[in-house]
Amino acid sequence: DSDVPDVAGHLFGRERAVLQAVRAPYKEMFGPHCFYCGIHLPSDNPIDHVLPWSIVGIDGLANLVLACRRCNGDKSNALPAMSLVERALDDQRLSALEEIAAALQWPTQRERVLAAAGGVYRGQPAGVPTWSGYRRSERLDISFPPWWISST
Predict the structure, then answer these.
(1) Quick check: is 2 in a domain?
(2) Number of domains making up the chain
(3) Which residue range(s) make up the domain with 113?
(4) What's the Rg (C-alpha) of the chain?
(5) Structural domain contains residue 128
(6) Gap between the Cα atoms of 90 and 142, Å rounded
(7) Which has the closest alpha carbon to 140: 62, 79, 51, 90?
(8) Strand pairing report for 129-133 and 64-66
(9) Residue 18: what pLDDT?
(10) Is the pLDDT confidence value at 13 over 70?
């Protein structure tokens, strides 16, 4: 079941899924632009985990975005700003991902990504820096939590 947490993978390590398969469908659905900065992407651009794979280990489509090398490298395994998570979890985007999921037989893992996002951000100390764009950061403030934190 794709919504059941991978306890063994968390304890003993996981293999990263081959993400190239989502590149063409994402570009067709969302356009060939970096999710973070909007720059036009080359044919071999990276696929990024919005919530870092090193933190949550989720390869579901709801956690994947097109990225340019500059943003992908700069973000690395940093926690993204809440506004970026908000964009990634947008209902319209997630609805489009359902089409890609059906075509690729690759789960969106929407509920798992929502639960992980809520848990990760609730567990962070106030003011921790989050990545908000190339060479930019903003301090985490969940005093007025977004829907995806309060719904989990």
Answers:
(1) no
(2) 1
(3) 7-150
(4) 15
(5) yes
(6) 18
(7) 79
(8) unpaired
(9) 83
(10) no
